[in-house]
Specification:
Blueprint (H helix, E strand, L loop, with lengths): L6 E6 L6 E5 L4 E6 L3 H10 L7 E5 L5 H4 L2 H6 L5 E3 L1 H9 L12 E3 L6 E2 L6 E6 L8 E7 L6 E6 L7 H9 L2 E4 L8
Length: 185
Amino acid sequence: MAEQHLIFRSFASGSSGNCYYLGTDQYAILIDAGIPVRTIQKVLRENGLSFGKVMALLVTHDHTDHIRSAGSLGELYHIPVYSTKEVHAGMERNYGMSKKLTSASRRNIERDVPFYIPGTKFHVTAFTVPHDSSDNVGYYIEFGEGDNLVRFCLATDVGCVTPDIRHYLSAADHLVIESNHDIEM
């Protein structure tokens, strides 16, 4: 089998919305969905990527600029939504997410407990990122094996680098860090 390469795209990053894509020629995941589904689909098309290959949504935290379309992706498009129980509870309370998730769409994860996303070869570990939300995690994702192992790490709203964050960042080959959060604001 031919070696697969990872494709990363940032569809949006900032207070007006956050959404990231990580995929191969065969499958993909989204990390956060703080922009409209139509915008996600448009950007995918513009980049020659298929919405039908999206196998999961990983959510970092429950602020509207990260979850606006999570309910629609989960309920209307049947894309499983992965996050901690605390983030799922926060999403339920957030009025910025009009379509709420049912238990059929929710996938609860725990920090520092690796998991696989079915239909992919992504091995994912969530880790704690301090932020003023119900809970906030970053994602460390491994893909491939042996000499072809790729380690990817994404952390958003990083106000300071903790030992836990440093551990995952230092293990990664590729980093995405969004750090516009200021705890004093």
